[in-house]
Specification:
mainly alpha; MFS_trans_sf; membrane; AcetylCoA_trans_1-like; acetyl-CoA transmembrane transporter activity; transmembrane
Length: about 240
């Protein structure tokens, strides 16, 4: 019902935009460097070959490796330790206003001549939060009781998530501000898309690798079966 409702809203609003919104023909479009797909890819290739762009791409492709495990696996491990999924989902609700307000606050610090300074300053704090998340996963079974988890546990989780959001958005807004600042206005859309795509890849591939490594790097013990290592899926099932 939820998906059906918003699907209907999406279709109606998009149709209304198509029917009622008209282009302003009086405005003269700005000159663009590219005229087709082939020209666009040639231009992208020439941008990527620039030494400064190569260095920056290498930076943003590897910058998030240190956060990948904390970002991708913490929630799964908390569920594995017995925290109800619906409780974790509810904790995401207070994060929504924070996610709306944070970019407005952070943009004041990224509007200057050196927006990446905010990115660099937020990085060590985000790395430290990775250690805090590891402690949180270790602490979870210690506070669990028959009725579930105490209120103070959820307060700690909520504060941890809030601090994580601050560091995450500080880095995200800083990268977006830098990409907007260095993009050539004549090819702004193409330039921005390239840098944002590389930035997204820099966040996605470490998380994928972290999830893939969870099983091989998890130490397991078999209760009542000394000869079994439980290191593989087959051994664990036996």
């Amino acid at each position: 019902d939820f998906l059906f409702f918003w699907g209907a809203v999406f279709l109606i609003t998009t149709t209304l935009v198509a029917l009622l919104k008209k282009e302003n023909k009086e405005l003269t479009p700005t000159k663009e460097e590219t005229k087709g797909i082939t020209d666009t890819y040639r231009l992208l290739f020439s941008i990527i070959k620039m030494p400064a762009v190569l260095t920056f791409c290498l930076l943003i492709l590897t910058a998030k490796v240190g956060f990948s495990a904390a970002d991708a696996v913490t929630g799964l491990k908390l569920v594995e330790e017995g925290v109800p999924k619906e409780h974790l989902a509810l904790l995401a609700v207070p994060m929504v206003p924070l996610q709306i307000i944070l970019p407005l606050i952070i943009s004041k610090y990224t509007a200057g001549p050196q927006p990446l300074n905010t990115f660099y300053k937020a990085m060590p704090f985000r790395l430290l939060l990775g250690l805090e998340f590891a402690f949180l996963v270790w602490w979870t079974p210690q506070v669990k009781h028959e009725g579930g988890f105490p209120v103070y546990y959820y307060v700690v989780v909520l504060l941890s998530y809030a601090l994580h959001q601050i560091t995450l958005y500080s880095m995200y807004v800083a990268i977006m501000a830098f990409n907007a600042k260095v993009s050539d206005p004549l090819i702004g859309g193409t330039y921005m898309t390239l840098l944002n795509t590389v930035s997204n890849l820099g966040g996605n591939w470490p998380s994928t690798v972290a999830l893939w490594l969870v099983d091989p790097l998890t130490v397991k013990e078999c209760a009542g079966a000394r000869e079994q290592t439980c290191g593989t899926t087959v051994a664990a099932e036996v």
